[in-house]
Amino acid sequence: xxxxxxxxxxxxxxxxxxxxxxxxxxxxxSSSSAMPAPPRAQTxxxxxxxxxxxxxxxxxPDPLAPAGEVAQKPYMGWSSYSMQVYEPTPGGWITAAQLKxxxxxxxxxxxxxxxxxxxxxxGWNGGLDAYGRPVPSKTLYPKGLQDVIDHIHANGQKVxxxxxxxxxxxxxxxxxxxxxxPECSTGDLAVKPHQPGxxxxxxxxxxxxxxxSQKYIDSIADLYASWxxxxxxxxxVTPGSGKNDLSMDARDEVKGWSxxxxxxxxxxxxxxxxxxxxxxxxxxxxxxxxxxxxxECYCPGEALTNWPSISRLFPRAADxxxxxxxxxxxxxxxxxxxxxxxxxxxxxxxxxxxxxxAVSAAPFYLGxxxxxxxxxxxxxxxxxxxxxxxxxxxxAQPVSTKTNKQVWYSLNADSSYTVALFNLGATEADITVxxxxxxxxxxxxxRDLWAKKNLGEFGSAYTAATVPPHGTRLFTVKPERKxxxxxxxxxxxxxxxxxxxxxxxxxxxxxxxxLKVTVTDSAAAGRKAAEKAADAGVRTVDLNNxxxxxxxxxxxxxxxxxxxxxxxxxxxxxxxxxxAFSLTFVxxxxxxxxxxxxxxxxxxxxxxxxxxxxxxxxxxxxxxxQQVVYSISDLPNGTHTIRGxxxxxxxMLLDKLTVRQVSxxxxxxxxxxxxxxxxxxxSTEIARDPGELAGITNAGKALVEGTDYTVDGKIVTIKKQYxxxxxxxxxxxxxxxxGDYHDDVHATxxxxxxxEFTFKGTAVEWLTALGPDQGEADVYLDGKLVRRVNLHNxxxxxxxxxxxxxxxxDNPHTLRIVKxxxxxxxxxxxxxxxx
Length: 835
Known about the structure:
β18 and β19 form a beta hairpin. The protein is of the alpha+beta class. The chain is built from 18 helices and 54 strands. It has five domains: about 5-30 and about 70-390, Aldolase class I (TIM Barrel, Alpha-Beta Barrel), CATH 3.20.20; about 400-480, Golgi alpha-mannosidase II (Immunoglobulin-like), CATH 2.60.40; about 490-505 and about 740-835, Jelly Rolls (Sandwich); about 510-535 and about 665-740, no CATH class; about 545-660, Jelly Rolls (Sandwich), CATH 2.60.120.260.
């Protein structure tokens, strides 16, 4: 079952309700065990004597990057939060005895496989000391938290704590002196007038322009380091955490904590549902960031999670994959697959979740009770080949999210591929991975990582038979000799120096547009052919709710023949919060069209992974059919994704999505008369370079150039001999145009900016865009300038080979491309040949 957003965030708030003192980060009440504050003028020496377990006084640190050296791989371990939700103890918190038991269980069963973190979530503390710093709960830890930390460390493990942004009213009013800095006090640390600091409203935003705020954060980070803390989860971070509109903004505090923790090499993890719009900021200042809502279903005593909570992560992973890598990782939340009795998932769903976490290079941390892992859970969690996929740190990307039979892949440093097949549908299915979709040409060996066996060599594809509903397969695909590997511009193996941007409206997407020909026969019907011409411009395309391009996540159903005025008399609907639809399209805008009714509520809308707004589909009286509840029209012409997520109400419906596209045909419709006396060729002018024309098809069958159609400059002519074979009615001839590889490029406007790629092989080729805004680039191989290439062209064209080198020794080589002139340099792909 799925709880509502309101219920879920309320329960999160309950579990964080004691997180209201000091920076709000410490899960305590300032009155519970606070020591009286000494006089503000007390010296640093006296202050140090009064404090307990305090770190030495340090000056305000110079700006530091996060402790990236501790985050070269996704971390592995366990977090207390899920158990607190599932089996709350009296008071709702995990005790010292439970933490020690989890640590011991991990030490016995999982630690040999790389699991090492024991992270203590909300509720760990019980008050403040005389300097506004957290004091651990004496109720939960009668022998002290240090005793628990020492126990965990003695097991060879690392310890994490929990916090949230902001500073509470109690801490402001108490006006504590800052440890080591008696000139500073906590009463001066909030932004004025006060602004909310966290989602639940426990505290106020800190004023990071006041140097004392950084000193206060430093004092607490130093205290944590003195305890031996290795990790800090920083929750309710905004933009994100249900607040993406900048009404709350914790970015300055994130930076402050990052600088304080980096001095101690403490892992810094952000939570929850971070706004992808600020991905570069999170990457600069943190080691990990949650990309979506809690994975828990909030079903106390019933289950930890459920399938909708897993399936909704796929589109988020598709949005975020390119933002992760050594130093910082996309966090999918706790992996809850260790015990079938409490997980809430079938065996197939448990393995699918483990596979998604593995191929996404997401932190591999559990939430189950480690003392109750079942044999299947242990099998999932201790498969060394699957763990190796996770620890390789190569986040996978989907070939397409327009299907429930999804193929995800990543390119490894040794030129092999990790490939995961996911059946997100409700019936078993065969799933095929084509090597060409990976960028691979040539045969390859396939190994099944879950089964731990080699499957053999396959020429151009592999099909996994009867993948069960919500099931998965996981493979290593290793190219054979003489195969070629094509590497996209956003692959982790590609590095950039200088100011580069992905796309930025400099990309061209592959697209097709129908030339609609109305075929008549005046000889048979006694009338003349009708011809309709339309000028090129913006055209709209209606996609009904049952269109195969729309991907539904969760438990959706289709209702037909309702008689309420729906588009094509049907709708798709769901009753579960967090269920979602998504559509990836090429165009400049899209409308979400649905019914409005009293039984319906709010829907969150995302465009290209960025939250846009919450729209209401509620109507107090009556029923409104085909209502446009969200519309956007100013997108750059290219590939985009709209995603709608149910947040409230009894139902969420989708009737249709209307896409706006730039027309590439003038005209985009015509008429043809089959009467032999009236037959004539049909011509249209294309708006793209003729070299970008990929082909023409009708009902999936390709027309033959020179026989069925001709191309003369930008004029495409459909031959009358072909049209005469078409039946009377409307014939849609799909005219397809190629685009940049994967519909994206990286671009720079700075001379001297460079892109670099290291590979092992015997030949290499650079394929990229040409255009009127481009100039020259220098190409280096292994540090030597080998060629200056001219990328200027009168029209914008895609994927053109501009440099090639063969006959190389089978050694590691480095290709480096440097911008020399022109307005912009675009980088698309590199292709290299294996020995």
